[in-house]
């Protein structure tokens, strides 16, 4: 029996692709709100009235979106994308907590807040980090193996057996038999019979 493996997308690939598309959409929508001026500033409009963003923040979203769509092509690279999300946004959460004053010290205070991160952003980044960890450790789905019957071998054409030829009997007539018996004798026999006749006549 021949076996064939049906290729299907793994859940990690589907989830990584969806996250990548969501990042792309978020980046495009963000530029609609912020435009391209004051690239790393903090005076931009809030996205949906909740998340603080700026053009640099939008670029980060677009970057993670493109990477997610590309790495979703295989299950191995999709897992890699999950680890990238977990590590990258995990660091953003730590940085965001320092920026909003939830930690006693802020060793990166001199860097300011170039991504315009607020408390709502921190919660969103924490959720993205957890989602990245889920993509990275999600078990693979088993491959579906289908068995296919082997192709039936082509049979050789069957030919009817040739009947054995029976010996033909030839009917002979009396005339043919007589002609066969009346065939002339060889010359040697004629000479022998003549010599016998002569010797008999002399005696």
Provide key terms for this protein.
203 residues, mainly alpha, two-stranded antiparallel sheet, disordered N terminus
Describe the structure.
With 203 residues, the protein is mostly helical. The protein has one domain. Helix content is 54%, strand content 7%. It has helices at residues 11-34, 55-71, 75-99, 119-137, 174-181, 187-202, and strands at 2-6, 46-47, 51-52, 144-148. The strands form two sheets. It has a two-stranded antiparallel sheet. Helix 1 packs antiparallel against helix 2 (55-71), helix 1 packs across helix 3 (75-99) and helix 2 packs antiparallel against helix 3 (75-99). The radius of gyration is 52 Å and the shape is rod-shaped. The termini are far apart.
The structural domain count equals 1
Which secondary-structure class do the elements indicate?
mainly alpha
Strand content: 5-15%
* Tally of DSSP helical segments: 6
Mean pLDDT: 75
Strand order of the largest sheet: 1-4
How can the largest sheet be summarized?
Answer: 2 strands, antiparallel
From the spread of the alpha carbons, the general shape counts as rod-shaped
Q: Segments where pLDDT lies below 50 for 5+ residues?
A: 1-5, 170-175, 177-183
Order of helices and strands: EHEEHHHEHH
The Cα radius of gyration reads 52 Å
What separation lies between the terminal Cα atoms? 105 Å
